[in-house]
Design brief:
Elements: E1 12-19, H1 25-41, E2 46-50, E3 57-63
Antiparallel strand pairs: 1-3, 2-3
Amino acid sequence: MPAVQNSGAMPDIRRVLTVHAEISVPLQLALLDAVEQALQGHGVSRIWIDPGTRPDLLVLAEFEDD
C-alpha cells in the first residue's frame, strides 16, 4: 500500500450520492459507473462507498483543492 502524504490540510470529502437498496442491482451498477466517470472527469482524487450505510450505498468523494 502506498504511503499517504499529508500536507496538513484536511481533505475535502463530500457525500455525492445515495443509491437505495430498492433499486435493481443492474441499475445500481449503471448509476455507480456513471457517477464514477463523472467524478473522475471533474478531477476527484478518490471515490468510495461508505461501508457503514448498508443496505443503501452512500458514495463519497475526495475533491482536490481548487
